[in-house]
Amino acid sequence: MYGISLMDRKNVSNAAIAGMRTDLSLLEGYRYSLITLCFFITYVVFQSPMTVICRKVGPRIFLPGICFLWGALVIGLGFAKNWTTVVGLRLVLGILEAGYFPGCVYLLSTWYTRFEVARRYSVFYLIGSLASALSGILAYGLMQMEGVQGVRGWRWIFIMEGVITCAIAIFAYAFIVRFPDQERDKPSFRFLQPHECQYIIDRLEEDRRDVVAEKFTLKRFLKPAGDFEIWVFAFMFFCLTTVTYAFAFFLPIILRDNLGFSLAASQCLIAPPDRYRMRAPIILLNCIILIVGLPIMGFHSNNAVRYFGVFIAVAGANANVPAIMAYQANNIRGQWKRAFCSATLTGFGGIGGISGSLVFRSQDRPDYMPGMVACIVCAVAIMICATLLTLYFRATNKKADRGEKIIGEDPDFRYTL
């Protein structure tokens, strides 16, 4: 489903190549840019309310439900007669997709202990990215339907991908589970027996004591906004997604041809955190790998060496996505605080998508020096934030050990460094 969500938000670029720009007069002024970026406006704004709805309704209904609805919207894009209709549909698409990624991040964090989530986030993110990478091949195949039933090829891209999305949403309803406390009281299907759910809940209670959500109030949900570390996590994710989106926009052909190696390298880079119960050191290592790869990718005279730089840079950047997600999840206690943080993190990630589209400008060809410098600055900013957070967490843990401070309203809770 994550791969489908990425495909459905980016398929407008495939449709544009297939004739959409000409048919809907998107070449005039900033129409195409507006269509591309309008998605992120509602995607960022609706992160928090959609996450609250996910907690209240339950992920088994909420996640497949919004997936089915945005699939129907994508089908509607295939019948759009003008560019303003496309803008309107993509604004609504942003609202619906705003609930998916933070909802999944939140759901995963409620089922696993703090030192189990990094690997799960990694698998979730990398498999989704790999599935999304195949969207170009799928779009090319659908373009060959040009003229079938008198319908243009770019319209078939939207129609068929929307149908696929709706089908996956129906299929997903049979397998997505509720939150652990909901599964114990009312199992979705024969996934776990009640005593197995209770075992999982006991493990989570021992780990952080926040399995059962408190009654929702707006004050309780917004209270974490006063915690500075939440905004530091969000800023780190903004810097990271600025780089990853910039790569996606600047290197689509290279990444599509070589994504398998890059994802495999990313998987290897994310494996140590759960094993050694570390977060910040791994984030720093990934940033160093990114910084090493960027100059090689941008400035070396040999194309083969530059491609190698792409592998290094992409591996370092992509490995940090689940790493930062896990770093945030490990150091947040409380269901509603966790929901707020997931929404804030992914909301800033959406803002990073907007800034990432502006990093590599055509006027900076051929070496794209300003874009390379911007990516390096983002990596350095992540390193500074991770270092300062680690120092703060370490000092706070020492105070908690001496009995001078209680972290997250739990005397036994300690920050993960």
From TrEMBL:
GO CC annotation: membrane
Major facilitator superfamily (MFS) profile domain boundaries: 1-398
Subcellular location field: Membrane
Membrane-spanning ranges: 29-46, 61-80, 87-109, 121-142, 154-176, 230-255, 282-301, 307-327, 339-359, 371-393
Keyword Membrane: yes
Recorded superkingdom: Eukaryota
Protein name according to UniProt: Inner membrane transport protein yfaV
Organism: Coccidioides immitis RMSCC 3703
Taxon lineage: Eukaryota, Fungi, Dikarya, Ascomycota, Pezizomycotina
